[in-house]
Amino acid sequence: MKSTINTSQLITLPDGRSLEYIEYGDCSGTPVLYNHGMPGSAFEAQVLNDVFKDNGLRVICPNRPGIGRSSSLSEYSLSQITQDCFFLLESLAFNKVTVIGWSSGGVPSLWQAKHSHTQISQVILLSSYSHFAELDQAPSHFAGQASVLKQVTTRFPALGLLACKMAGYLLKYMPSLYFKLLMQHCHTPDSDIIEAHPHYRDMLIEAQKQSISQSASTLFMDLLIQFREWPFYLKSIECPVTVFQGDRDPFVPERIGQHLADCLPNAQYHLLPGQGHMYWFEKSFQYRLARLCQI
């Protein structure tokens, strides 16, 4: 019988910081690296546990700096986050992994793909952000709530930080109100998933609480570095990338997924009709995802 790992673990990074990670699925299975959304944490990948265990997949989910028990960074950067993940893979003696990134987790996934030599075989993006410096140059670049969040975070950082602190306060002291407000921004496909699986509500709240457990400024810094210009272009990422995008996603709209597919040289694009941001919580999609990870 396959066994399941779902306990938090820590490793010490070369600079002395701690990196927390959680594993789900089959502890002896094919490794998959999962990059969490924001606000979010490694805890959210528990929804993959059962299907990935049944399909012989071992999911490794690190918390980015300042989230959960991962040490914070004095200078928060995607470059350091990428190095941390590669150190984790080397510590676990993984030669090749599939990388999955959901929402904000797509950005570190793309950075890992860019800087990988042999460690990453493919990347699977689930409603991922793109490189906004390139997206801003594209026709019809406006990208819904993601664009609004980018404008607030980069042009009015004090306001962006205040918004993150307010979200953190609601998460900590009024989680029910926070979740109600969150669901008001979701379209019907996502609210239907939560209604059908009420335990996902508690999972999302806990995962998002972990993102502000040390400081709400972690949420702000994580968003800010993703919206800034990167030192490379999407066309320089050579490994295979599969892009999934719901056509009713209010957080990461269809325009962003299409932009990724247009700019990445080795991408396959799958537009999901009638889907929002949380389609991957459904078992039917998870089996599809598991099959991709087995390639």
Automatic annotation (TrEMBL):
One Gene Ontology term of the molecular function aspect: hydrolase activity
**Can you give the residue ranges of the AB hydrolase-1 domain?**
31-282
Domain of life, per the record? Bacteria
Name assigned to this protein: Alpha/beta hydrolase
Q: Which UniProt keywords apply?
A: Hydrolase
Pfam families in the cross-refs: Abhydrolase_1
